[in-house]
Amino acid sequence: MNETLQPPGWTERVRAASALVLAPHYDDEVLGCGGLIAQLTAAGAVVRVLFLSDSGGGGGEQVADREAYGRRRREEASRVCEILGLAGCDHLSLPDGALDQRLEEAEQGIRRAIFTQRPDLVLVPSPLEVTRDHRAAFAALHRLLAPLREGADTGEMLEPLRGLRILLYEVNHPGHPDLLVDVSAERERLERAMAAYASQEERHPYWNAGLGLRRFRTLSLGPGVELAEAYRRLRVDDFTTRSPAQLVRHLGGLPEVGEVREGPRISVVVRTRDRRDLLAEALASLAAGEYSRAEVVLVNDGGEPPAVPAGYPLPVVRVDLTQTQGRAAAAQAGVAAATGEYVAFLDDDDLAAPEHLSTLAGLVSAAGVRVAYTDAAVAVYELEPGGWVCRERRLPYSRDFDPDVLRVDNYIPFNTLLVERRLFDEAGAFDTSLPFFEDWDFLIRLSAITPFHHRPQVTCEYRHFRGGGHHVFGERPRERGDFLEVKARVLAKHAAELRPDVLARAVDTLRADLVAEREGAAAARRELAARRDELAWRQAELAARQADFASLERSHSALSDEYHALIGERIRLEERYHALNGELAAVRGELAALAAGHGRATAEVQRLYDEEAKLRAVVDDQTAHLGRTYAEIERLNGVIREMESTRSWRLQSWLRGRPS
């Protein structure tokens, strides 16, 4: 992953009509995103805060009466609500310090808040925070968003979330932001808000820490920004296409990975042939997993025997085929060598999330579940000078088990599957006559024996490498010459099961999916068109502002030239004035020395006094003229400062500062 973690060198203005702030404790909303909240409410946005915990000191604070302490903090939050101009505060009152043990309740509370308020912006603590309750708030939001799919069963759920923006804020640990907000002007209101949290300031100078973090965030900015808040932007797709651990790693952190030591023994069949680098990544993803009751069955399909890293934490069973026998034979050889109660598959170009095997093991622990599967995000990589970079993540395959649709098309990536070992004997061997689709053929036979249990949660990654030639289908499967021919062979094998009623149900389901997808695409196109219209209007406004600014610049330049000319004239007059003062002094000396010529000297002195008065009048006139010029320059500078405070000017400045 070659993604920059460097913070931006500019600030942006965040706009929202309605925003929901998820705060684990009373005061996190001020310390983490108080400046942005103040800006949003000042702009007329409806902002509400959902406090998740009772903040009663259960996180390790020394509190004599936790109930009274929690009540005091809640009363303080009410005053802060008024100071920040919030539309209201809601309270889940879950036990402080134990949010990670009450994730389901937190998820339900967040769900109610979102579906009641329908915000277009949600602010939540970063999962890189050091406080467990902060990380739990993010985990609860992930639980809510991760299962959401475009489909008949979730269409209503998705509607309030379509276009939802998520901003991660930081309280006690700097993250890797891609958005900085200038909150210098909000300092006084933030100080008043934190002063209202007297119970906290009595215990620790939290505001000093919050102030320091905001000053630290100006490090990449110019001297004009005194305080800044940092955020990381996410979309709903980031939650649906990544497991919690994958998302933490994507954000630049190290995920918490526990060890699951109980459960069935799982054999993971890894097929490979002469792709050492990809295989190393696949094996590393399994090694980083939570589930320790697993073995790797490494099937080398006729290539050079690959090396297994020294100290690899999972037992490895090696199967080295002397000649390349194909995908089906390699899979069958792996199953034959497996010793686990359940079998999973991971090809060498795919990756498993840390939660992958533990999630599947949990699913098959339920009574009667012999086959389970999750979801795989399709990740598209492009080769850059620094290596392969993920450019796109999609979730095209996420469907609950439907044997009728499975007989028409495969929607279950093989690396998402966990199968009871005995079922391979019942379903029969992989069809080695198939160059591909051997997994689909096997799944059709397997579905006739037992239903599959599906959890709509991404736990692995199905990778495509543009131009890399790594995948059996390439970048465009349907352009492969034998794609439809092999597919027809699989359909022909199971034609007896594909009765008219089965085919009708499958086609109707797929048609409904297509209609929903087209409607969603049409809505997306309409929204894109609206955004383009708005952008065009903004560009026209910017062009007009640029023309005004150019005119002002010309006026400023002309006045500047006149100003410098007047300064030069003033200098010359001052020099002349001082020279005349010298002459006057000399004349006065002569007057003192020439007492006899007093009358004549007096007349000469009067003449010089008169000349001095004229010169003083000229100097005074020039000084007054300079004063008027300074006033005009100050007025024009005020106009320029007013222009520079507009959104259009900042956008223009940003555009000029972007690298080409």
Helices and strands in order:
Layout: E1 18-23, H1 28-42, E2 46-53, H2 66-84, E3 88-94, H3 103-117, E4 121-125, H4 132-145, H5 155-158, E5 165-169, E6 179-182, H6 187-196, H7 198-201, H8 206-216, E7 228-235, H9 236-240, H10 244-250, E8 266-272, H11 276-287, E9 294-301, E10 316-321, H12 327-337, E11 342-345, E12 351-352, H13 356-364, E13 371-384, E14 387-394, H14 403-408, E15 417-420, H15 423-427, H16 438-447, E16 453-465, H17 483-493, H18 500-593, H19 598-644, H20 647-657
Parallel strand pairs: 1-2, 1-4, 2-3, 4-5, 8-9, 8-11, 9-10, 13-16
Antiparallel strand pairs: 5-7, 6-7, 11-15, 12-16, 13-14, 13-15
In short:
This protein is an alpha/beta fold. The chain has helices at residues 28-42, 66-84, 103-117, 132-145, 155-158, 187-196, 198-201, 206-216, 236-240, 244-250, 276-287, 327-337, 356-364, 403-408, 423-427, 438-447, 483-493, 500-593, 598-644, 647-657; strands at 18-23, 46-53, 88-94, 121-125, 165-169, 179-182, 228-235, 266-272, 294-301, 316-321, 342-345, 351-352, 371-384, 387-394, 417-420, 453-465. 48% of the residues lie in helices and 17% in strands.
